[in-house]
Amino acid sequence: MLDLLHAYENYLTSVKQASPNTVSSYLRDIRQFSQWVQCHCDQDISSVSRQEVSDYLLFLQNQGKSGATISRTLASLKNFFAYLVASGFLKESPVSSDIHVERGEKKLPEILTGKEVEQLLAQPSCTDAKGYRDKAMLEVMYATGIRVTELIDLNVADVNLELGIVKCSGTRKNRIIPIYPAALHALSVYIQEIRPVMVSDPEESALFVNVSGSRMSRQGFWKILKYYQAKAGIEKDITPHTLRHSFAVHLLENGADLGSLQELMGHSDISSTQFYTHMINQKIKSVYEKCHPKA
User: Worst-scoring range by mean pLDDT, 91-105, 165-179, 259-273?
Assistant: First the structure.
């Protein structure tokens, strides 16, 4: 079992170039299924049948797991067993096409309004090094729409202040993203005047650093965002990904085409980008139903 998981992990990382979060999620679902099979069926995951897969999904349902969680688990198992078949480890997959899960209605992510974005970006007080750094991070996050992992992975060498661009090394391909003047100004001040004071090791390559002078973490940025959310009085439950979603929706609302947005977002599949069109349509429908006198 461990050999199969290691092989699959290498496949996801090297061939599919899946993000660390995706790899972790897939492997977690597979391990949990493997443990259940060993405990309840006394057999290895490589010898399970369609019945064991169906029984496990029913088990998750009886445990009160959401439709989204069960659906994700099914997708994880389907991809894993498809890999085993394609690699010659199995003759056929126990996850047949007629196994379905009621996913339930998917909750649309929170999107900040233009006013809320302005409120959030105005919160960092540029009176000390931390304030200047936080200002630059929030501005760059909204200016580029990059993922939080991509933000904290940025190095100083990835920024070209003269051209006003950031090179983002995503999970699948690199992309060049322009940044608007206010974000460029905040980033310039941070790089030229603030970061040299915060970094103690001259060999440190990270663009955004913590108070110790080392690379900012995901958790560190999450705390920064939640602090300024509260300070701005924004009641929505926002996460670092909220800025990415808001970036995409605001560009589409202002006339961006899907192809260009796909490049900026780093999506390998246009369907991921089309999701934001669906969000806009849902928003329009909601406004119509709320405001039209005959609705």
Answer: 91-105
Strand positions, DSSP E, 11-160: 159-160
Confirm whether 2-86 and 114-289 share one CATH topology: no
Q: Domain spanning 114-289: which superfamily?
A: Intergrase catalytic core (1.10.443.10)
Q: Which two tokens stand for residue 219?
A: 């958790």
Q: How far apart are CA 251 and CA 156, in angstroms?
A: 26
Domains in the chain: boundaries: 2-86, 114-289
pLDDT in tens, 105-117: 556 678 899 999 9
| Bridge partners, residue 175, by sequence | 168
Mapping DSSP to helix (H, G, I), strand (E, B) and coil, where does residue 21 land? helix
Task: Give the integer Cα–Cα distance in Å for 166 and 178.
Answer: 6
pTM over 0.70: no
CB within 8 Å of 133: residues ≥ 6 apart: 190, 194, 195, 198, 208, 209
Asked which of 56-65, 96-105, 150-159, 176-185 is least confident by mean pLDDT, the reply is: 96-105
Q: What are phi and psi of 243, to 5 degrees?
A: -65, -35
Element (H, E) at 278: helix 270-291
Q: Which CATH architecture has domain 2-86?
A: Orthogonal Bundle (1.10)
Q: Name the residue among 8, 41, 39, 40 with its Cα closest to residue 25.
A: 8
